[in-house]
Every structure is written in C-alpha cells, then in structure tokens.
Amino acid sequence: MTGRRPPTAVSPSRRRVLASAGALASAGLAGCLGSGVDAEPAEPIALTDGQTCDVCGMTIADHFGPAGQIFYADDKPDGRDGPAWFDSVVELLSYAAKRDARGWTTRGTFVTDYSSVDYDLVDRSRSTYISTHVAAAAFADATNCFYVVDSDIRGAMGEDYVPFSEYEEAMTFADEHDGTVRQWEHLADR
C-alpha cells in the first residue's frame, strides 16, 4: 500500500488552483469592503452536551459512527449560534446540499477523524458498528479527509462514510472492511 496516493492529493487540478485563488481574492475583497461575513476561521467544538442531530434529532454522543458539524458565515442553523450538528456524514452532506442551494456560505465543516482516535468496532445485531468520538480534538477539516465508503461498517444511520485524515489508514480500513476510499469532493457523486 505504500506509495498509493489519490490522483488529486499529489497534483491539484488547474481548475482547483484557479478556484482557490479566486476564493482567496474574493475573501480578501470582502474583508476590505466590510461585508459583515465573519472572517474568523471556524474551530470544531465538542458535541458532549447532549446536542442532537439537526437532521434526525438523535443525541449525537449516544450513537455509533462519525459525527460532524458545519459552521456558516451569516446563517444560523435552527436560529442558534454555532454550528449545525450531525450524527452521520451522510446526514451532514444532505443538510449541506440543501443549505448550499439556499446560498448559505460555509465557514468550516468538520467530521470525526478516525486517524486521530482509538476507535472500537462493536458487533451488534449481525452488523459491525464503529464507535463515536465527539471531543473537539476528534474532529478534522472534512475537506481534507479520505472517506471509506461502501464498507461493512455501520454508523448511527446505517451505512456511513468513515473519515480518516491519513490516506494510508483509510486504505487499510477499506481493505479490511470491503470498502473503497473517496475524497470529499467525490462524496456527492454517490
């Protein structure tokens, strides 16, 4: 497995470089013009205080699988300050797509990073589930993670995407659990 890298991790496409440069220029201009958009970078928070998923309403810390959170620039999920909360990456993506369609601006998206935690696999009712981790330090930037998809491992809502910040760890997990590895930008293609 050593030496296997996803094509876009080695060399970003010209389109991606141009889009990033454009986004940086727009952000700089917005700061100069005083757009009112919060320019502070988002930092993940702990989801240990009984937060419930903004899609299904389940208490996040009480269920298996990866958790997530999305911070928005001007809009507030359900009228509250802070991020939207999720008990699965699948639900996070569904929520994000609906907000993107409404024109909401994302400041940061974070998911459980299984490269940074000691996770457990639990067999229950003929399925294997991965443990949840909701401390602030357990989260990583979702756009920089590699996701194991179509594996035999389950999360809170059944089949889920298991994120790793380390590509080799994602590949090993995928090999052991009959999955494949995808990058963030390819999850919507599923």
What does this protein look like?
With 190 residues, the protein is α+β, with helices and mostly antiparallel strands. The chain has 2 domains: 26 residues; 148 residues, no CATH class. The strands form 3 sheets. It has a 4-stranded antiparallel sheet, with helices on one face. Strand 8 and strand 9 form a beta hairpin. The longest helix is centred in the first third of the chain and has 20 residues. The protein is globular. The protein starts with 6 loop residues before the first helix and ends in a 7-residue tail after the last strand. The N terminus is likely disordered. It comes from Natrinema longum. This is Nitrous oxide reductase accessory protein NosL. InterPro entries: N2O_reductase_NosL (IPR008719), TAT_signal (IPR006311).
